[in-house]
Amino acid sequence: MSSEMKQATCSCGFSVVSDDETEIVEIIQNHADGKHGKAMTVKDVRGMLKEA
Ligand SMILES: [Zn+2]
């Protein structure tokens, strides 16, 4: 089992760190929609993921 932490950072500076990619995707999608009125796909968010 791997417990690599992943991080996604929004262009506004908001960032999420978790070992659960699904959780990161949900949080970033909610953030992008709520804060920026921008719909992001799972693929978009996965493209932002980096090792944390
Ligand atoms: Zn943002």
UniProtKB/TrEMBL annotation:
Pfam families: DUF1059. It comes from the Archaea. This is DUF1059 domain-containing protein. It comes from Haloferax larsenii.
